Amino acid sequence: MADGGGALTIKTACPYCGVGCGVSGAVGESRALSVTGDAAHPANLGRLCSKGAALGATVGLQGRLLEPTIGGKVASWSDATALVAKRFKDTIAKHGPDSVAFYVSGQLLTEDYYVANKLMKGFIGSGNIDTNSRLCMASAVAAHKQAFGADLVPGCYEDLDLADLVVFSGHNAAWTHPVLFRRMEAAKARGQKHVVIDPRRTDTAEGADLHLAIAPQSDVRLWNGLLADLIRRGAIDRDYIAAHVNGFADVETALAELNQSPAAVAADCGVPVEDLLTFYELFAAHERTVSLFSMGANQSAQGTAKGLAILNVHLATGRIGKPGACPFSITGQPNAMGGRETGGMANTLAGHMDFAPADRDRVARFWGAPDTARAPGLKAVDMFEAVHAGKIKAIWVMATNPAVSMPDATRVREALERCPFVVVSDCVDTDTTAFADVKLPALAWGEKDGTVTNSERRISRQRALFPAPGQARADWRIVADVGRAMSFDGFGWPSQARVFREWARMTAYENEGRVLNLAGLAALTPEAYAALSPLQWPVTADGQGTARLFIDGRFQTPDGRARMVPTRPRGPADAVDAAFPLSLNTGRIRDQWHTMTRTGLAPDLCRHAPEPFVEVHPADAEAAGLKDGALTRIITVRGEAVVLAKLTDRQRPGSLFMPMHWTNAFAPSGRANPLVAANLDPTSGQPEFKHTPARIRAHRETWKGFFLTRSSLASPTGLDLVWRRIPQDACQQHEFAGRGDEAERAALRKALVKGLTGELVTYEDAATGARRDAWVEDGRLVAVLYVTLAGRLPARDWLAELFAEPVLSPEARSALLFGRPPGAPIDEGPMVCACLKIGARAVQAAIVAGAISPDAVGVATGAGTNCGSCRPEIARMIAASVVIPPVKETLHVA
């Protein structure tokens, strides 16, 4: 349909987190896109977070893969497809089907996932297909399967509105799922209680009724202690247990192996006993309780045990299958759930079937594929270890960036470098595509067309807003073409709608008790598929969705009863010691997504946290001789990184936090995952991103500078620099620091200025070692280079804005080398509200003028009135009566 201005408006789904928000996109000329939330979509009811609101800035074609390449040279689709098929066939013929592998992604649509799984497990005959969801949600999957008999999320988003108590266990919802957090904020205003279990005082914890800043990896001890206390209080539901649950006696016996007194549990978890008792009392008092658990619980060598400990508490209290009461695993990616459904994980088959003979034979019959894999394949970390060891000789990476996102990422790069044949299908160049023998251009969000499943099991349509650019193709079609080229039958679908229908039929095939069932969608016409409205599975034969599971107390186990499983706490896989005395925790930040291949295109999303950083408690910083804003070296057994230090008492003493988003394209020395050890949960295979022993020390650069230019640059080779790139609206900002001499600075300048034209204006100060250069051509600013040894560098904002001017004014030109306009300096402070581009100075001014609530600040400035993800930060500024100090000189001043 068309909006009031005549632009075509299409309803689709957001490509970011597992909330699965509905999006309305108004398409204009030249790929212009205006995005709003879809008010009719039940997941978000019209709200979008800062990332979703900025989608229109990410749909350009810069950096896109638009044609296949072989060995770096442009090739036809027919040649590229034929080569991939031949190399995979030849490898299988010589070394067997387990010598090849697919590594796929929660960025794929369900149709893409289904086709890839069918090709690898059904026709190649190997289980070696795994997904980057292994890094996010595999432990929750394993816990669900043990407790419920299948990977089943029992709750729905309405439960977040109805609950009287919400427990956030390793879940910083204010940043990772802000649209859901706004719903819970509204419920909190009506009296809902919030408890946050997290070593960090996150934005979610900041406004909670109770924050338990537990010691790293003490979650199982905490939840077991809660269950023991509920048993002592008589606050469990023995009738529910008798009717619907097995294993309670075994769990009770296991609890008795340790002292479960509040004092003992509090000591082991590192929290005040008074706070622990408050948690116990809140949980006992509120029957309508939702326990949200996410990456902080899952990304651990004890992730499955953590999930089971949470499920045990809910099963013992009967708080499951009821409005406002459930354990709720929140997914990190838009289609992590769709991948889990279709068999995207190495240890499952499609349709929530496993490798038991009956399941395997059923899948083989449905596909007409007698060679269907008979055993699970290699999970993500083990898969790349097998590549490194030469056991896997051909790998196809789809829509993900393991060279950045995997733990021990340097070893993953070594594996890809060693692999005889690497295929990457993606929409953009990434750190991983650098290792590809064949690159296949895939569609991006805004061009894809298919379905995704969100965290509450809701299937939504992701619709194309633009035609396919260049020669880019849908992932399902790329895989199907290779399947046909390998001479396999069953890959000739004419459309994604036909793929979906086959997938829906598979879920219903010989289904005698599997909860995942899309029977009501198995006969969708192309028109009905195109118009499909969001609905939750299981879907009945008459097309009706299901909000909550286990309402009748029946589970997908042979006897229909849930299973409580004993869990025993244990220490981290790697303990801190004198050499590495700190615990490094990695995770996400508010406005960035994964490895920045999409959000990095939106300058507004790069301003809240423009550079990689490490959060350090002031006591730990003092011991290491660190200052706030200084470049800091983080060292683990696996590697090193150099980032800015952020001193904050929101970080638990003895612990560090470092975001995982930055890549070679943005900050080569700021990548987090080369530091992370590949310690795995023994059941789920999920890596422990939340604890790696580390130490820190000052970097002690001797000079620094920045370079603004219209195009992005990679870090110059051959120089030992700390390098950052920060997108701005009209230019690219490059920050750097070095520890070398004049020869190093001269080499950098030579590399940067190569090819620049126009009039050069220069200023030098021998006393401070400062040099400032500006290039102007036809009255337009071309580039700016500032370097200093001992002096200050100006804020970059005004200089960056000059690149948008068609002709520099005489005043601006005369002030270029001062770095600020005549008069008072412009300093908006760090970005607070990314949606509306409101800095900390404006928020502070509103507070000084009398705005004493986030709502009042919103009225005065607009900050926090769109997605609301900045509201906790605004509340913190109000509570602290923040007075922002003058800009400090660091590597970068926002």
Provide a brief overview of the structure.
The protein is 31% helix and 19% strand.
Describe this structure in words.
With 894 residues, the protein is α/β, with parallel strands linked by helices. Helices cover 31% and strands 19% of the residues. The chain has a 7-stranded mixed beta sheet with strand order 5-4-16-15-14-6-7, sandwiched between helices. Strand 23 (631-635) and strand 24 (640-647) form a beta hairpin. Helix 9 runs parallel beside helix 15 (303-317) and helix 18 packs across helix 20 (409-418). The longest helix is centred in the N-terminal third of the chain and has 19 residues, at 77-95. The two termini are 41 Å apart.
Descriptive terms for the model:
894 residues, alpha/beta, seven-stranded mixed sheet, 19% strand, disordered C terminus
